[in-house]
Amino acid sequence: MPKDSVAGTGIGASTKRREDVRFLTGNGNYTDDINIHGQAYVHFLRSDVAHGRIISIDTSAAAAMPGVVKVFTGKDFEGVGSIPCGWQVTDRHGEVMKEPAHPVLAQGKVRHVGDPIAAVVADSLAEARDAAEAIVFDIEELPAAVNMKAALEPGAPKVHDDLSDNLCYDWGFVEENKGAVDEAIRNAAHVTTLELVNNRLVANPMEPRVAVGDWNKSSDDYTLYTTSQNPHVIRLLMGAFVLGIPEHKLRVVAPDVGGGFGTKIFHYAEEAFCTFAAKACKRPVKWTSTRSEAFMSDAHGRDHVTKIELALDKDNNFTAIRTETYANMGAYLSTFAPSVPTWLHGTLMAGNYKTPNIYVNVKAVFTNTVPVDAYRGAGRPEATYQLERVIDMAARELGVDPIALRRQNFITEFPYATPVAVEYDTGDYPATMDKLEEIADLAGFAARRAESVAKGKLRGLGVNCYIEACGIAPSNLVGQLGARAGLYESATVRVNATGSISVMTGSHSHGQGHETAFPQVVAEMLGIDASMIDIVHGDTGRGPMGMGTYGSRSLAVGGSAMVRATEKIINKAKKIAAHLMEASDSDIELKDGKFTVAGTDKSVAWGDVTLAAYVPHNYPLEDIEPGLEETAFYDPSNFTYPSGAYCCEVELDPETGKVTIERFSAADDFGNIVNPMIVSGQVHGGIAQGVGQALLENCAYDENGQLLSASYMDYAMPRATDVPFYTVDHSCQTPCTHNPLGVKGCGEAGAIGSPPAVINAVIDALNSGGHKVAHMDMPASPSRVWAAMQG
Amino acid sequence: MTKVAMTVNGKSVSREVEGRTLLVQFLRDDLRLTGTHVGCDTSQCGACVVHVNGEAVKSCTMFAAEAEGASVTTIEAMANEDGSLNTVQQAFQDYHGLQCGFCTPGMVMSATALLKDNPKPTEQEIREYLEGNICRCTGYHNIIKAIMAASGQEIPAIAAE
């Protein structure tokens, strides 16, 4: 059994997850499980070319097919808004980014494989698919912009005809530092230069996206059921910017959601389509993505091409970092796409190290590919990978120990203001590295390498650190940086007459276990059992405004809102208790679910107070209102900064180039922890995704923009045989200083920290066998490794 | 339309369906047994695993008509008679072997079939058996632990946390 570090159901207990029971018995309620009486089904006809001009679309034959309700094309959406982008980046010359229109269905041109051309709504899915085959269309195929650098060359095919070129923005950060950085690099004793690719990935939550639109003809209200990490954000984006439906007429429900990893943050055309079509067809309209469709319509992740230079003085102190990155936006700007390579990436380039001069340049590029946006870590894995790879490379060039080089340059005093505009509140990087050396048994590595060599294999060790900025984000700050929304979170704590509690939160759980962990916090504060508390989430009709779950923000921001609302509950409940016991408010103490008058044996139970709130016969009505329900909005004053040190040990078969992960260890500092079992699970899953990026996964396009990896036959997902048992530890805890729980967030760490550890280990293995390989791009597939060994 | 009849979770059922109806569509759309999931369209992910005549089958790879006369068991029938979780289900909860829950029904059905054939599988045997079940959340660590525990075996020390 998982060990319980703390008894009971409060903070620190590895409480078993209550949501598991419905998932284990087939009683989950995912969006595709929702069927509304009379619903019709939509099938999207999608472009099979990367770039083309729509000459004609004839839907008359399709419309006459059996079961067809209506066939839609881009013309039907001419009066409808563009799918909006939620973040406006300003470039290094003070100009705002280029922001092309993104129609619900293609208008004039198709711009990537998968761009929807038309949509057939029919009585059954099979009839919709059959009818889509009967649509006659003529698309003039155009040359495609695929490679980012080529797309910026003069004369390159333009993704958007109304833009001057394919450059979305040219961002410099911090622009004023550029001169000092250039000078520090000129004066350095040593400069290590690394060019690398952060490979394009597909998030691949196991549940494909689904949308069910419904329209109520008597009230003119809409309901959208959708696979979203943030239903309120979808209500805002779709209601206000695309369809023009005010909030009180639009309810968005995201029930059980089968994983998100970022790609279910964004507002997608299919959501707007189903909502719009429900009214147009006067029937509920359901869309269920196939996996093949998901590969060409879910926003992809990563896809950066970077050159990084690390300058060191004669004593191996880091003196400067300069980077130049090309970041793929794909064909349209997805919801948060512009923020990922900029504010979620550039601000992290200091990592765990005191480098005085840093300059980051990012050129965001439109291409004829699927839009690229946040995927688990979002910008922070890209920053960590380049930094931790270039440090390892520098250590190898200089002939020094890579761990010692890191330790020498660690930030050790907090708070620490980086040269890239963020202030780390707490951390203890030597402590996490110490813990890593212990749990990874680095002392035993030499013996394990000897065993591998005796078997004819190579063995490599890779270590790295990471830092991330989580708990996204202070609204006033992100507003200055271009965010078009606030990034607070809300909670309503509704105490019922019998003392049971419903907590309405704007955070959304799609695997993170909020239904179990959030009640632990409230139970701890009130001294009652967590089983009396339920979490309500994922429904704009049942909770206040919320911003959702991404950026490891749920507990740090959503949990903090819940703490603030619970504090208000306690304050009011104490007033009621004081009245019942004829005592002063200030003398009331709440402990173990009981209110007592300090220094006396007088007490009233939790349930007595909650009953009095709703049956106020003996109640201070002249001072306070009946009822016991409070709402709080929490807006963080800073990001949180989880950090850690990771270690990967690989064995490499020189005959085949195949790399196997033999050991993987992670020492994380997440600040305070509510449910250790859930935290470990989050790290495990993140590591597997990072290992997937490093060894297996690659979203590949050919030079014509044809998507080559559009199913699980071609896109290598990590399977049980690809990963080992992991050793994870989160006993190093430097609590966050600015949120009430002292928590930092743990959702993305594994995916951020693991890719450089794997590649560092692969490079170490190769060099241990006499192969002078300085770098290898991900994924380190057998063919790439084998080719590298041939020189 | 074709009439198909089979036993599902101990109950006789029959429906008129199109010949192209897959078993998973029959279970989800015709019988409203939505615990069986569809995670891909190439028979790779295993979210749709059910038992057909006691054998683990990806229900997206066979037509409903091919299950004519068969006995089909889905995740909805796996709990104990009193409604409590069975040994495999309970181990998944105890060891946090699921997060979003979407792959979970397939994992439980595959694990059950494995333990029927091989009551004390090694870690490697479990990993190899689960080749056809993809999980994106757990990194497999706690799934392997849960299955080892369900088979009454000790968990390796390296997997303690």
UniProtKB/TrEMBL annotation, chain A:
The keyword ATP-binding does not apply. The keyword Zinc does not apply. It comes from the Bacteria. Residues 25-143 form the Aldehyde oxidase/xanthine dehydrogenase a/b hammerhead domain. InterPro entries: Ald_Oxase/Xan_DH_a/b, Ald_Oxase/Xan_DH_a/b_sf, Ald_Oxase/xanthine_DH-like, AldOxase/xan_DH_MoCoBD1, AldOxase/xan_DH_MoCoBD2, AldOxase/xan_DH_Mopterin-bd_sf. Keywords: Molybdenum, Oxidoreductase. GO terms for molecular function: iron ion binding; oxidoreductase activity. It holds the Pfam family MoCoBD_1. Gene3D superfamilies: Aldehyde oxidase/xanthine dehydrogenase, a/b hammerhead (3.90.1170.50), Aldehyde oxidase/xanthine dehydrogenase, molybdopterin binding domain (3.30.365.10). This is Xanthine dehydrogenase, molybdenum binding subunit apoprotein. It comes from Puniceibacterium sediminis.
Automatic annotation (TrEMBL), chain B:
PROSITE patterns: 2FE2S_FER_2. InterPro entries: 2Fe-2S-bd, 2Fe-2S-bd_dom_sf, 2Fe-2S_ferredoxin-like_sf, 2Fe-2S_ferredoxin-type, Beta-grasp_dom_sf, Diverse_Oxidoreductases. The keyword Iron-sulfur applies. Gene3D superfamilies: 3.10.20.30, [2Fe-2S]-binding domain (1.10.150.120). Residues 2-78 form the 2Fe-2S ferredoxin-type domain. Keywords: 2Fe-2S, Iron, Iron-sulfur, Metal-binding, Oxidoreductase. One of its GO terms (molecular function) is 2 iron, 2 sulfur cluster binding. Pfam families: Fer2, Fer2_2. PANTHER family: OXIDOREDUCTASE WITH IRON-SULFUR SUBUNIT. This is Carbon-monoxide dehydrogenase small subunit. The lineage of its organism: Bacteria, Pseudomonadati, Pseudomonadota, Alphaproteobacteria, Rhodobacterales.
